[in-house]
Amino acid sequence: MTEQTFQDTSLPTLDRRFSVAPMMDLTDSHYRNFARHLTKHTLLYTEMITTGAILHGDKHRFLSFANEEHPIAVQLGGSNPKALRECAIICEDYGYDEINLNVGCPSDRVQNNMIGACLMDHPELVAECLAEMQSTVSVPVTVKHRIGIDDRDSYELLHHFVEHVAKSGCSTFIVHARKAILKGLSPKENREIPPLDYATVYQLKKDFPQLEIIINGGIKTIQESKNHLNHVDGVMIGREAYYNPSMLLNIDEEIFLEAPASQTATQALAAFFPYISSQLDKGTKLGHISRHILGLFHGKPGGRKFRQYLSENAHLPTASIKTLELAIEHLNI
């Protein structure tokens, strides 16, 4: 692999101060369209998409997105440099603003295909993959990884990983502040059991000031995000942004210092109605869309009844936009 310089800083750069993490079975196009009525500036990610799905499957089904979803990044899963290079070209052609390599997923299924966190044991291969992608596209190529895996979790090993991978030219590292236990824990347990270690991510920023370091893992509030931004370049939030989406309402104003996309959750949902109607007209089932808004009124009067009504009725064959209107009637607004 040929060592490269850091990505050309003359290229347009994304504002990664705040982003929503790629989450399997959650951050699909329906969710991203909905999120855009809560925040216009947050960087959104696709679910992880394997190179095989793109090269040998229905790539349009996996990669297509609406223009309103920008800024948007695609996360790829794979470890074959040539396959990743080809996929990067395809993703850039589709219009993605960033291409991210998954080096953090701990599931057995992806490990067997040399995808995800197991790649932390192979920094040379990760660097080669990133170099191949960067050699053919002009959009930023980034990496998301853990702070370690199994018993190979010393700071020295993490430092070596980042130092070596950075030689590929990759300058943005999204760091989940937990190690991954590759044998014995499920993906869900890997998000909860290994302890968070934010200080380690902070130290990476001190040791690699030239790199953009984004912190991820266990972050739930805007205030926590602001605290982290005193130490690193950006914050990525995962499930809190999905299961309590109204927290995104204040991101544009509090983090990006811009006008909010919507003033209230009710306004955001009303703005989402045309999209829902258009999807229903195309044959999409209401439940495939409404599952992303179940937590919108979390903690609000009537929020539980809203969620319950949608959960019980959105998947019925007769479900329609009227179903959603009836759910809203349960809110005390």
UniProtKB/TrEMBL annotation:
FMN binds at residues 22-24, 75, 144, 176, 216-218, 238-239. InterPro entries: Aldolase_TIM, DUS-like_FMN-bd, DUS_fam, DusA, tRNA_hU_synthase_CS. Pfam families: Dus (PF01207). Residues 20-319 form the DUS-like FMN-binding domain. The active site is at residue 105. Keywords: Flavoprotein, FMN, NADP, Oxidoreductase, RNA-binding, tRNA processing, tRNA-binding. Its EC number is 1.3.1.91. The record marks 102, 188, 191, 304, 307 as: Interacts with tRNA. Its cofactor is FMN. CDD domains: DUS_like_FMN. It comes from the Bacteria. It catalyses: 5,6-dihydrouridine(20) in tRNA + NADP(+) = uridine(20) in tRNA + NADPH + H(+); 5,6-dihydrouridine(20a) in tRNA + NADP(+) = uridine(20a) in tRNA + NADPH + H(+); 5,6-dihydrouridine(20a) in tRNA + NAD(+) = uridine(20a) in tRNA + NADH + H(+); 5,6-dihydrouridine(20) in tRNA + NAD(+) = uridine(20) in tRNA + NADH + H(+). Catalyzes the synthesis of 5,6-dihydrouridine (D), a modified base found in the D-loop of most tRNAs, via the reduction of the C5-C6 double bond in target uridines. Specifically modifies U20 and U20a in tRNAs. Belongs to the dus family. This is tRNA-dihydrouridine(20/20a) synthase. It comes from Pokkaliibacter plantistimulans.
